[in-house]
Write a structure and sequence with these properties.
With about 240 residues, the chain is α/β, with parallel strands linked by helices. About 35% of the residues lie in helices and about 25% in strands. The chain contains seven helices and ten strands. The chain has a six-stranded mixed β-sheet with strand order 6-7-8-3-9-10, with helices on both faces. It has a four-stranded antiparallel β-sheet with strand order 2-1-4-5, covered by helices on one side. A hairpin with a 6-residue loop joins strand 1 and strand 2. Helix 3 packs across helix 4 and helix 5 runs parallel beside helix 6. The longest helix is centred in the C-terminal third of the chain and has 18 residues. The termini are far apart.
Length: about 240
């Protein structure tokens, strides 16, 4: 596995610090509180699971940590850098440098081959075609899919597509991997392979992994689990 890139911001024992985060949706008179004064601190190099019923705020919290949205109150630090007040351009820079994402529905482009999908984040960095192909092929080799490099998503199983998505998340050498239900669309055998792969990546590279999951097998294999209910952490940390 490729080691994550060294930080260019402050070092510390926590990759993620969330303090007093609040977030709501809807108009002022009928707002729905999604996150209510959430505190969380995830150690660097850890593999943690966010669990809880649908609507408990897990995915919203993950999106805020991933700088896909801005909190309406509180502070977020990533690798020692305060990020909750960044503008869109600054947030995009930190996101592209620091974070890799894995989604339940893979988000692979159907007309591109596996290696082309994996290489996509490098296009936005201005990496030349040969260099990004070499990097993509190396990541596909790491996730056990080198022989599928020239196949398109509809020519692969769900588990293979998720491993392509993992390779794509890793090709920029992030320090933080955020996963939203990474085994949610997989059968048990494919899900087990993805779980084992995420564990291997975490163990071999020191990549910090935070995932939202309903999968008890996956949550049980993490270093720690945090249970959310009604927008608050009720056990694990910050309860």
């Amino acid at each position: 596995m490729t080691a994550p890139v060294a930080a260019t911001t402050g070092q510390g024992s926590f990759m993620i610090r969330v303090e007093d985060i609040c977030h709501a949706y809807g108009p002022a008179r009928s707002r729905t509180m999604v996150l209510d004064r959430v505190h969380l601190a995830v150690p660097t190099g850890a593999m943690w699971a966010l669990t809880g019923a649908s609507g408990s705020g897990k995915s919203t919290l993950l999106n805020l940590i991933g700088l896909l949205d801005r909190p309406q109150g509180g502070q977020i630090e990533l690798a020692g850098q305060a990020v909750s007040g960044l503008d869109a351009t600054e947030a995009a820079h930190v996101r592209h440098r620091l974070i890799g994402f894995i989604f339940q529905s893979f988000h692979l482009l159907p007309r591109l081959t596996a290696w082309e999908n994996v290489a996509l984040p490098l296009v936005h960095r201005g990496v030349g075609r040969e260099a990004r192909k070499a990097a993509a092929m190396a990541e596909l080799e790491a996730v056990g899919l080198a022989e599928r490099a020239y196949h398109r998503p509809d020519e692969m199983s769900g588990g293979q597509r998720q491993r392509v998505a993992i390779a794509r998340a890793l090709v920029t050498r992030p320090r933080l991997l955020l996963a939203d239900e990474p085994t949610g669309n997989l059968d048990s055998e494919s899900g087990e392979r993805v779980i084992a792969l995420l564990q291997q990546i975490n163990r071999e590279t020191g990549l910090t992994v935070l995932m939202v999951t309903h999968d008890e097998a996956l949550a049980g294999r993490c270093d720690h689990r945090v249970l959310m209910r009604d927008g608050r952490i009720v056990s694990g940390q910050g309860a």
